[in-house]
Automatic annotation (TrEMBL), chain A:
Keywords: Coiled coil, Disulfide bond, Endoplasmic reticulum, Signal
UniProt feature coiled coil, ranges: 397-424
SUPFAM superfamilies: Mannose 6-phosphate receptor domain (SSF50911)
Signal peptide feature range: 1-23
Source organism (scientific name): Theobroma cacao (Cacao)
GO biological process terms, semicolon-separated: N-glycan processing
Protein name: Glucosidase 2 subunit beta
Region feature Disordered, mapped onto this chain: 199-262, 322-345
CC annotations in GO: glucosidase II complex
UniProtKB/TrEMBL annotation, chain B:
Subcellular location: Endoplasmic reticulum
UniProt GO cellular component terms: endoplasmic reticulum
Domain Glycoside hydrolase family 31 TIM barrel: 359-687
Domain Glycosyl hydrolase family 31 C-terminal: 695-782
The protein's name in its UniProt record: Probable glucan 1,3-alpha-glucosidase
Domain Glycoside hydrolase family 31 N-terminal: 84-303
Record carries keyword Repeat: no
Protein family according to the UniProt entry: Belongs to the glycosyl hydrolase 31 family.
Gene3D superfamilies in the cross-refs: Glycosidases (3.20.20.80), glycosyl hydrolase (family 31) (2.60.40.1760), Golgi alpha-mannosidase II (2.60.40.1180)
Signal peptide bounds: 1-23
GO function terms (MF aspect): alpha-glucosidase activity; carbohydrate binding
Amino acid sequence: MKLTLSFISLSLTISSLIIPSHASSSSLPSNSFLGIAPQDEDYFKGEIIKCKNGSKTFTKTQLNDDFCDCSDGTDEPGTSACPQGKFYCRNAGHSSSLLFSSRVNDGICDCCDGSDEYDGKVKCPNTCWEAGKVARDKLKKKIEMYHKGVALRREENKQAKQAIARDREELLALENEKDVLENLVKQLEGQIQKLEQEEHLEKEEKMKEASNEKVEKEKSETEEKVDSQKEPLKTSDEEKMGLSWKSPSNQNEKDEFQSTEGLSREELGRLVASRWTGKKTEDQVEEIDTAKRDYVGNREKEESAHDEHSINNALQFNENTQKHHEKGRNDAGDEESVADDVGSSSTHYNIRLEDHENSSDIATPSHQSWLVKIQETAQNILQSVNFYPTPVPNLDANQVRNEYNNYTTRLHDIESRISSLTEKVKYDFGIDNEFYLFYDRCFESKQDKYVYKVCPFKHAIQEEGRSETRLGNWEKFGSSYRMMLFSNGDGCWNGPDRSLEVKLRCGLKTELTSVDEPSRCEYVALMYTPALCLEEKLKELKQKLESMNREQPWSHDEL
Amino acid sequence: MKMKPFKIFLIFLLFLASQTVHSWKKDEFRNCNQTPFCKRARSRKPGACTLIAHDVSISDGDLTAQLIPKAPHDQDGDQIKPLTLSLSVYQDGIMRLKIDEDPSLDPPKKRFQVPDVIIPEFEAKKLWLQSASKEKIDGNDGGFSSVVYLSDGYEAVLRHDPFEIYVREKAGNRRVVSLNSHGLFDFEQLRVKKEDEDWEERFRGHTDTRPYGPQSISFDVSFYGSDFVYGIPEHATSFALKPTRGPGVDESEPYRLFNLDVFEYVHDSPFGIYGSIPFMVSHGKSGKSSGFFWLNAAEMQIDVLANGWDAEDGLLMPTLQSRIDTFWMSEAGIVDTFFFVGPGPKDVVRQYTSVTGLPSMPQLFAIAYHQCRWNYRDEEDVENVDSKFDEHDIPYDVLWLDIEHTDGKRYFTWDKLLFPHPDEMQKKLATKGRHMVTIVDPHIKRDESFQLHKDATQRGYYVKDATGKDYDGWCWPGSSSYPDMLNPEIRSWWGGKFSYENYIGSTPSLYIWNDMNEPSVFNGPEVTMPRDALHLGGVEHRELHNAYGYYFHMATSDGLVKRGDGKDRPFVLSRAFFAGSQRYGAVWTGDNTADWDQLRVSVPMILTLGLTGMSFSGADVGGFFGNPEPELLVRWYQLGAYYPFFRGHAHHDTKRREPWLFGERNTELMRDAIRVRYTLLPYFYSLFREANVTGVPVVRPLWMEFPSDEATFSNDEAFMVGNSLLVQGIFSERAKHASVYLPGKELWYDFRTGSAYKGGKIHKLEVSEESIPAFQRAGTILPRKDRFRRSSTQMVHDPYTLVIALNSSQAAEGELYLDDGKSFDFMHGAYIHRRFVFSNGQLTSSNMASPSLGRSGFSSDCIIERIILLEHTPGPKSALVEPGNKYAEIELGPLRLGGHGAAAVTIRKPGVRVAEDWTIKIL
């Protein structure tokens, strides 16, 4: 076999004096246009051809002669001679592709039409038909999915739009209310001052002798108490910090030499191993976990307590508003009962709005009437107070104080709600605000023993049992809204602070599907959502399918 | 066992503290003063040795004598037993000196002689001495020496009183190497413990029972005509060994040879790290080299003595020659030493490797680029990394899996969740011609359900502790035991574990990495095994410590040979090593750190390894610990491309650092660097063959090629790859310039542009981010392959480019070696070895393969596609190719495809086959 081959090449070389460009190598393409895209063929039709980067020219015979002439590989599209070369596979029946020249005749079938392997060392069957069908089917499915996805996205965008409108409206209303309340509070403040001055004058004489020293004493006592309470709290905080992150000073390093001697052999083994691994020894892990668990536990308790509180308040608020609406309606025009109502309104309006999550119902039209109502009531109080000449009866003074307290509280609540809404609308929610509905939502994925929780615009955490690790705080969207970035998470031993990249893909449901840690403490997650089902992409896919159908000769049969 | 919470907390704090500042735990390791034998030996004064040679005679072809003290009793009045001395002579200028206790006098224990290091062929080279001549020493009252033949031009001399051994040139009686010229020789003979004696040694909570008491040996060795000494790896320090004692030495600590797993070792320290080769080479202005090797595997400490260290002792030494004195100390064993006369540096290396063996010939894939990380986590990760290389058109040959791939650090197993289909995974890589390496360490998990452990326990194959129980240490798997690799039966058993049947999930494209084989024991003294642990035949660990990793490497390598039915060359990377490890595979410089100093120190470390036989070595590209800045990483790739062993590796706490993760430009730069290696693979492979035949290392110091050029003697920032390429590393950030010394009288050509530079001077060069300076030496011919593939496997049929760098007489020569890249057939002549000579305007290719073996079995269809002539006057239009009487065109072309730089005279498509004889004449 080898003999005959070399005989052929020998006879070829003998036949001409100057070595013909194809004789020295057994692997020249039979078609000198091999590896050139059809739309590019015209470029190569002349006798003298330019390298595309203009570095040089080459002759027709030097095209695909398995010797690199152009630094950009223009002259060798069909061979492996130029490192910069690109080989075009037609792949009829499938989609065409461009290979690195390093793949040509390397013994591995890269093009499904097998055109990249022509030196006879390996036989590549044409698999474009099958592969193309599979690819087209896959693409069709994807297009179907995108169709649905695009519709879903549209629907969600609509909802987002509404939500934005609602939030803006609420914000406006709240700001309005805030103005009114501020005004009221100021007035009440004035009233109270006045009342107090009068009370003060009244009491002053009685008080004069009795209490001066006593008050001083009590005051200093309370101050001391507060201080002594603060002190231990502070140290325990520091301890906690020391335990979890900050390493102690060098002094402790010295201690190690003494202390390692006291270790058991196993402890020593674990300690030394931990230098390389950065892992704490098991016992230590447990210890830290407990510490952390306690800490987290506390935090959870606090949080849940807080949550309860705010939920209660929310309920109360709803109830109250409800009641008030009814009352407002019932009592309209009934002056007396309004005046009566003033007293009870103090309980009605003892409301906290803080952390009130789903409060879009405040911004309902009825709210307006409620606001009007407040104004009216307040007006009444002010007026009623004004009617009485000095001295003011105690009852009225108390009422005024109560009202004052209620309104300030209410004002605070509104202010904090305003600031959280202002905070919210400041975020970038995407091209069509398609991520607006992600705000206040968290997405979970369970993997082995971990539960990952991604809360866009807020943070991402990893939960293991009762302990949680913060993978990052919201940073921003990346790569044109195809990625969510969370950074500055909990620190990593000997490594970076944890961070998370959530790659976003088009899907019919918003769900977190996988979380991975390719580098230590650098997490990568995948999330599907209709928000990513873009119409342009759908168009692109359709075009791709069309071109695939066009390029494959059997498309008629298939249809 | 419960830890008290407070203690746990303390440990945790300490553990945190330990991360922050200096990580090298200097205090955890013994310095000389904490090592009684070292401290004792160092306190001895020159002339303290009173031994004289007695009963000097020739017996069994050796010169033998008894060493007896002048005063036959020691201070306590005990009789001092004589020692036996034998001096043998071997072909090629090698003298061997052995001194041991006299076995006929019933010493308490036979002292350990390291077996299986000296190759069997060496014994056959022994010259049987017939006679010794007696020579009277001038000026010494009646003193005599016995002189024997060593080789043409050299003699070995034994001076009787006081005893001294040296090698000298016959002509002019110039000394080469001598032993005990300063009378520092001391040999602590084994003896019975006296009642009041305490032989135990304690260090940081560990107790060494030392049941046999003191048994150390120390002596001085002098190198004559010497300006520098080199060798005795492994230390992270300069190539030319700095003095450790005497005038001008501040912190006096000897070079320590004690294989240790040192966490975050520091650069520029005489401290012992992973491997030990007690072989020293000297070199001097005369251009001559000599060598000294002490075959001893116990802890060794070596002082290089600064000039004038002995000033106050006033001993008379020959003063005409420049000289370097050294002082060698070992805790146990015997004196079994080898003197190498040189005279050239390559002669010394050849002589040394004739004793300890030549470097094995690696497979082609093994000298290409390796991609490693602790850890590629699972099959998906592997597949992803693999495909990214293709996506970025970056070639690589081997993907590595570190300890996490196993089921709970039980070697030979796979984590079933992460690697459910190991064989499929390997096969997938193999379809692209790529290989995989998995880690197999010597610590075996003490787990009753682990078959390997059960097997080893039942057979009694573990190293025993001082009480005779299986030694139980702590390593990655937790409680672990260590097979006794000193025992050939156990090595063979171990080797069998690599068969495809035993190593489930292994395939023919899988090779092995031996880590932690110092051995590393996390809870042992100095992070290793206690010295009183016991090996085969009651040998104490102290006696063979430095060779444990060597035997482990050997067992693994032999196992792979067995696996492949003796047809597949093994590839085993080891961290620990000893003299002779070159026969079993590659080594790397262990857990280095991602900083510029460690990049710099990698060069002297690799040069030292090469000089002492370990030709196949490299440092982790990028630095194991820490995150390299992209610039450092790029520079490391640019340098690493010239390491004999080229692998990127990283600690699991570091960020991912595969070449495509630092932006397009850096990807391009790293791709370029890796491609330099691939384009030079034919040259590297030829150099590995040269090492395999002559012992001359692939990467060598400048003075090995330019022995008389003094400016090169302490240069360890530049190195030679073979005889043709000089490479200078860039070891600083944002370097704009580099000073490069180019030795010799001929020109050097920039490896990338072809620009010519004069030899014999320092050039201040501009440096770009694109590459580190590299030059082809005028008068050489470099074979390249300029097509890049996925891996070296696909390059096999690709055509060659020859780069001819003409010297001042318009001549050049070079070699090319190739074989099947895989099997042992080359040992039976199945290879192609060509010699290319260019002179008188004509290039000739001729056969260098030995004619007796002929060209049996291996042929290649590869042709030469391009011949580039650097510094050839432009003008010629064609060349005549014979046989065939054909013409090839000549044009001006680039030195590097796709690169820039001056155009060079290029013969286009001469079309000749590498396997054949031909000539090409420039017309």
